[in-house]
Design a protein that fits this description.
Layout (H helix, E strand, L loop, with lengths): L1 E5 L5 H17 L9 H13 L4 E6 L2 E11 L2 E9 L8 H15 L5 E3 L6 H9 L22 E4 L2 E4 L1
Parallel strand pairs: 4-5
Antiparallel strand pairs: 1-2, 2-3, 3-4, 6-7
Helix pairs in contact: 1-2
Length: 163
């Protein structure tokens, strides 16, 4: 059975490995292989709590196996992060976390959640589609990082972007 609870500072040591794994996974989308950094995970979890971001955790048999971080701006709720440990995937945990965030949005008067998703994160894009999220809202554009090799382009409507 999955139990969803709002996380607090007492969950720091359970949450840190998941937050560290999330960061490591994101870096892999840009071909940067970095081992999870527990201290970075602790700092990031603490930051979200200090800044009063709602952070919900999914527990299975008292073990924290996933989390979702929400950023609230009035009635808008952004999913800053959602992560489920590799061994606990495909068991409805992400869906349960996502539904908790949707309830928060509805409680605040919102109609939808908003997400930033890395274009290489095909798993998350498929998950969002399954949840009914199919509208491209905004495009994040930046200058290339020093030394960054961009090998592809992406077409969005009439516009072409380096990727």
């Amino acid at each position: 059975m999955i139990t969803i609870l709002e996380l607090t500072t007492c969950h720091l040591e359970q949450a840190a490995p998941l937050f560290a794994s999330f960061r490591s996974t994101l870096r892999r989308f840009k071909n940067r292989m970095v081992e999870p950094d527990l201290e970075e995970g602790r700092e990031e979890f603490a930051y979200f709590l200090e800044e009063k971001f709602p952070v919900y955790g999914a527990f299975v048999e008292h073990n924290l196996v996933g989390y979702i971080v929400c950023k609230v701006e009035g009635s808008l709720v952004w999913v800053e992060q959602i992560f489920v440990s590799e061994l606990a995937r495909k068991q409805g945990i992400a869906t349960a976390l996502f539904q908790r965030a949707e309830r928060l949005s509805q409680f605040l008067g919102g109609e939808t959640l908003f997400h930033y998703v890395h274009p290489n994160n095909h798993g998350m894009i498929a998950f969002l589609r399954k949840q009914g999220y199919t509208v491209l809202n905004l495009i994040e554009v930046r200058k290339p990082f020093e030394g960054e090799e961009l090998t592809r382009t992406i077409q969005v409507g009439d516009e072409t972007f380096d990727y």
